[in-house]
Specification:
By secondary structure, the chain is an alpha/beta fold. 31% of the residues lie in helices and 31% in strands. It contains ten helices and 14 strands. The longest helix has 16 residues, at 160-175. Residues 4-227 form the ABC transporter domain.
């Protein structure tokens, strides 16, 4: 049984279909990346998962429990980080940690985490930098070693060293059986940490794929340099897009089989030819444009 199971989830705000019938599942021990452009429905989905807002229809089950009916019980087993960490200005970091600890009652690992994040919990949060506020949010999300982590942009405002600390913690937790559902715009981060991703656009899931499967998609960037005159209209072929014109060549985006393009290029005197497999960034952008 999936650790997180979302079926036909819908949430509308008036005429805006923020989430429009999405379905996906996440297995135990998995780090699942939830990706999409701004306004795609990522945060709305996460807020429904946390029962901060109620869906119009559909179901969400986490650890086999209903995310709405069993919300209070589930929150004790979920570590959550919002996309914007909201804090009480007059409280110190330790005040926040103690408050969260009093609500949960589980074993508290906050002292170890404050050391790993090099965070001073004695300062009032009003004067903290955005990076230090993010550290505090992460400490409160990780401090009980939860069975489920739901993270919205977890490494925003963090320097590369602290980003690595987050990645290490994610690896440690999932190695112990925890499950991570993570929204991120950082594609290098997704590539490094996630085993699978769901891509959402305009409130609908457009793909659920393993990172490896995405990398193996047949998308290429081809740069061709010609010795003689050429007519770019000759390359108006299915699955081929001219993305740049050079003084003596073309840069082409190819989706699918390379063979038709290679045969077409064989009709010309080619001075140089470069073929690169599309990067993960290019592949995600292709989904975003669909």
């Amino acid at each position: 049984m999936p650790t997180i199971d979302i079926q036909n989830l819908k949430k509308y705000f008036g005429k805006v279909k923020a989430v429009d019938g999405i379905s996906l599942s996440v297995e135990q021990g998995e780090i699942f990346g939830f990706l999409g452009p701004n306004g795609a429905g990522k945060t709305t989905t996460i807020r429904c998962m946390m029962d901060f807002i109620r869906p119009l229809s559909g179901s969400i089950e986490i650890l086999g429990k209903n995310a709405q009916k069993d919300s209070v019980e589930l929150k004790k087993q979920i570590g959550y980080l919002s996309g914007y960490v909201s804090l009480y200005d007059k409280w110190t970091g330790q005040d926040h940690i103690d408050f969260v600890s009093s609500l949960n009652g589980a074993k508290d690992h906050s002292k170890e985490l404050t050391e790993r994040f090099d965070f001073d919990p004695t300062k009032k949060t009003k004067g903290l930098s955005s990076g230090n506020k993010q550290k505090l949010g992460l400490i409160m999300a990780f401090m009980f070693q939860p069975k489920i982590l739901i993270l919205d942009e977890p490494t925003i405002a963090l320097d590369p060293l602290l980003q690595n600390t987050v990645y290490e913690l994610l690896s440690e937790l999932t190695n112990n059986g925890s499950t991570v559902f993570m929204s991120s715009h950082n594609l290098a981060e997704v590539d490094r940490t996630c085993s699978r991703v769901g891509i959402i656009k305009d409130g609908k899931i457009v793909a659920v794929q393993s990172i490896q499967a995405l990398k193996e998609m047949r998308m290429y960037t081809v740069t061709a340099y010609f010795s003689d005159h050429f007519d770019k209209r000759e390359f108006d072929l299915e699955g081929i897009e001219i993305i740049k014109e050079l003084p003596s060549g073309l840069v082409l985006n190819v989706r699918g089989d390379l063979d038709p393009l290679i045969k077409k290029l064989g009709q010309f005197d080619i001075k140089d030819l470069e073929i690169e497999h599309a990067s993960l960034d290019d592949i995600f952008l292709e989904y975003y444009k669909k």
